[in-house]
């Protein structure tokens, strides 16, 4: 009975390059104005709120791209189609810097609140917007407000998406077979790269009247302490650590400076493999874990 | 007038094994999907929310069982019947590891919001679900959302439950006589093992859109500092310290690692007796403290 | 231009015994069940909530009385009449220990939400309840929920109350003339001993479903750091520091232990005069500062 | 790949006196009663709330003026017209101490919730109130609740205002041309000095029943750590750091003492130029950066 006792490794379904215990990805959700407009349409009247959101693509993205360059990290940026069309320069800069651009809805509306036709429309409209700007259709998807519907995995698989990153039921990526349970062999599948609320800057920093007033804005030191504690846990237990930052929040100079130091620290950890989500998804597919159906609970 | 002055021990109604000043229990509420569904039925539409909740029985329980094994602590897991049926493997694993399985409602609905017939139905349905899986009817009960009704103590006593752990008016367990005040000698009684909000991981970690958005998610270090400060107070004053963790929250790698270190610390304290709640209840009954009626306030 | 420069003492309208720079009072609001019932009547159905509130008079008051005795501090306890009638032993214990018992409404309803007749009824009913238990009518008043009405100062003055402690517009006590502005000499007046939200344990510790869910419960160390920083400011600037704790919150063993150490610290500060509010009020009256009318703003 | 690597200075559109990397302003929003009355008119019934707000102009302003004098900092105070008329002495004291007095609405209502005529009426009424007290019409404006409308920039420019300080889309001040995009040369412009939510004491300290209950009140040490981290980020990246304190919050002795030490620290930093906002605006105009139109998003 000792805290330092050796730990069994009951479940390590995947192996990472270089024998790393833990994969890590520094992802970004470039919400911009759409996040406020979808959550509270009345914020359209507020120039203050609109500019608060615009700070992300206007200023934050550039600063974060500089930081990623300095620390030598490649990342994934999830961009709603509406935001991409409003700030095409930010999207082109991200692509030019060699990072992955992925899908984050069109109007940043929660899929779980839409019927399947509306979901498909938002999905295709968002892919079209990104393709027009970058020449490529996105291969990764993350649900706006992290609120994936039951129908979306099939919609994604049908369209050839490689992965989704919106679910919360595992420490490791897995292969999801979104048809009925026990789907026929050869059915289209999707990699799921799980996230969780503690690894998000929104709950630490976001104050947005009429949208979210989560209580005292935390210091960057507090946020990084939290994210680091979860990373350390994953280095111990194995897993895939996915951090999400929003440029309209973490692009601010003070937060960005602390995030840069944190990224630089993680980049020195020999037991951590840092990669964009697309590479993590491919690495998962290569190992061909048994696909998993949707949960059995009836919605 | 000194802070270090000897402290009188005005009330120590119970004695613990080995002369410990303080009993301690690391209990778990395995809510799973039911906690979200009962609080906000619309979350059924959200695959993200459902998987966030499923993380508890799917991943968290196994990790926590490993930890309990390593630190040599036996514990009590409160499981709603609905969750038990959806995740029978988790329940069997808990039982196989030698921990106590106790009742946490069927649909995780708050008893105080139900009429007595509905309460009885939820109670029996939950007991049946657990018995089918483990072979035993549970002896302990904790109200979903920690919201016990005035009728439930009698319902529990009539069914032969040994204890409830949902009330908040004492530092020590006590014997509750749920009939009218001054109930006749020989009436059925129940042990009450009190809890309190500061000894719960929900208020530190839970962010669940449409259910609870309690403000900035805290670090595990902050949570453990809070729980430890209350434990230290009880070591000074005497009492029974009952911590509650939720596997969907504290089963995450970073939180689990910090919790393991904390458990290992407590396990070295010679003035603290760690036990499952069922053993604490039996220890209480053995000392036969005078039973107490329900509070006099008219609901 | 230096932070260490001597500070002018622009306004020190009152002097404290022994040349202390700062008066201090450790006051308690013994809300009990009434605080929950008044804020959310439906909590009457919840035995968990009722017992959470009952912890204050049942357990917390006794522990806090022991602590006050050990650190040699006399205090003021504000008790709603309803709570006094439900827990008469707690009230008698407070009085027997030599502390001041003051008025905190009858049903703990916010005066600002009542018409003047209802306010008077709550006021007299509360005084009657306390007088029946202690033999004395209370001389001090604090509004439930710290929500004083415009009419209450006159109602208090007419009844011969010595002081109120519910307003927030000064660092020092003052004499309030609750009639119209420039009230005639000789009109009844009242001492006002101001409070403020940062000096209250409610905003640090209170989690009460359906009543208040203020975000992550803080550690006692955090709470005391906040209270201490304000005390240090008042030692620098002069003033009257009034802390309010609720026995249902700060009577818990861990919080009480930290509070005891803090009280013991303050008791060693030679520049701080600790007293019950009644003594502070009398000390104010003796210095006969010019009375002040109600603010000019039209409600 | 090192955190200490030299940082490119991609965008430093403005230069500050003495070669400072960062401009800084300690601004104050003297809301007083109007902030509560506009957000929740029912608070007019509460003498406690009204006095809580009155603390700002009654006590806080004087203390903060003393502090500014001791640390040798000149500042900008935004005062709603209603508050100025209710507390004229505070406004005269601010002016007499040589600080800038600027416009903060008349009734502290959010412009984004008003039609253009109402906005103009609030604007002119507020200017009239300040001019009657100080002899000067204000040259700077900040929207109540930091909620600027799309129409207000043109209303301000038409009236000859020098600057606004309510938007959030940049680290540096800029020149805003509020007419249609690509406004004709010579059209009236306005300097915008951006702010952001993390540099505000409201989110750290404000607890105001029925108006805002943001969670546990933070310590002054926490607030200053947050503000300092953003200042350090701006010293690294360049920018204009604008802190906002409310005298009803930060005028309290403990918070004021910590703020004074922080101000004194910043005053020793050779890479930071501290100035009132009006001077920062003039410095911006002198460098004649290319004007920017309103964002393209259709409200």
Automatic annotation (TrEMBL), chains A, B, C, D:
Domain of life: Bacteria
Coiled coil spans: none
Domain NodB homology span(s) in chain numbering: 46-275
Gene3D superfamilies: Glycoside hydrolase/deacetylase (3.20.20.370)
Xref: CDD domains: CE4_HpPgdA_like (cd10938)
The name this protein goes by in its record: Polysaccharide deacetylase
The species this protein was found in: Leucobacter muris
